[in-house]
Amino acid sequence: MTERVAGIDVGKEKLDVGLIGEKKVRVWSNDEAGRVELSDWIVAQGVTLVVMEASGGYEAALLSELEERGQAVALVNPTRVRAFAKAEGILAKTDKIDAGVIARFGATMKPEARPRRTESQVRLNEDITRRRQLVLMLTAEKNRLHTASPETKVQIGRHISWLQAEIETLEQQISQAIKDNPIWTETANRVESVPGIGFVTAATLVADLPELGQLNRQKIAALVGVAPFNRDSGKQRGQRRIFGGRTSVRSVLYMAALSATRHNPVIKEFYHRLLEKGKHKKVALTACMRKLLVILNTMVKTGQDWNPSKA
Fold first, then answer.
1. Is residue 100 situated within a structural domain?
2. What is the number of structural domains in the chain?
3. Tens digits of per-residue pLDDT, 120-130?
4. What pairing do the DSSP bridges indicate for beta strands 232-233 and 49-53?
5. 231: which of 107, 180, 182, 244 lies 20 to 30 Å off by Cα?
6. What confidence tens digit (pLDDT) does each residue in 80-120 have?
């Protein structure tokens, strides 16, 4: 069977679609009617893989619409696609050019499709994302209190109270959603058994990393973006850096690893051993993030709770 790959350049108002084997780029509006029509066309064309760039959330509704049709969808980092375009000698950048490039990138690189999400998974992800947004607003408002006038402080105080109430409501919804799903409950409880892991980290892993426990240690680290890449050339050895991955997961994993360096005996010992070897604190903490993720992945895969002797 010949693979048919479609590349979609997602914008705020429109969707440009390129299909392997065709020069014409089609355009739909990025609204409910446009997404339904585009999804119908994708299915009718017998597309085996749809490739989209992560576009700051503008792709979320289309992603859900395609997944509801049982369509395989790969969400890729825009930097990878741009590097592919430069390798092809394409320096110009327009929506139509990008759609064709994304399609060829998909056909050549064959990125893995995302695991298909249920409606409850989508909703849980939205609640966690919204909570994260409100927490950022709350932090900003608290910082403004230091320099605000007395009158403005009253307004900021009311907004802070509202934000705190909304965050609490979302946390209750997230907690209830996890309790209503036995598989999520088991995963969340297992993850929370690790010293340094709290409710927010566990919920984020359940929502944003459904692959946890299903991949090997190398793939799960690369997926999250905590696998360091070499920067070597000849005799020169450059500093290794992490790149790409799922930002939401990496952010909570960073905070969890930071806590684990103080309260988790395994991670604490590992962290201080790296510092004694002369590693920079940030490098050592990144290594702890990777080690913590690998431990969590193994625990979920084997169905075992935290055991420091095995970790």
1. yes
2. 3
3. 988 999 999 99
4. unpaired
5. 107
6. 899 999 998 988 888 888 999 999 999 999 998 887 778 89
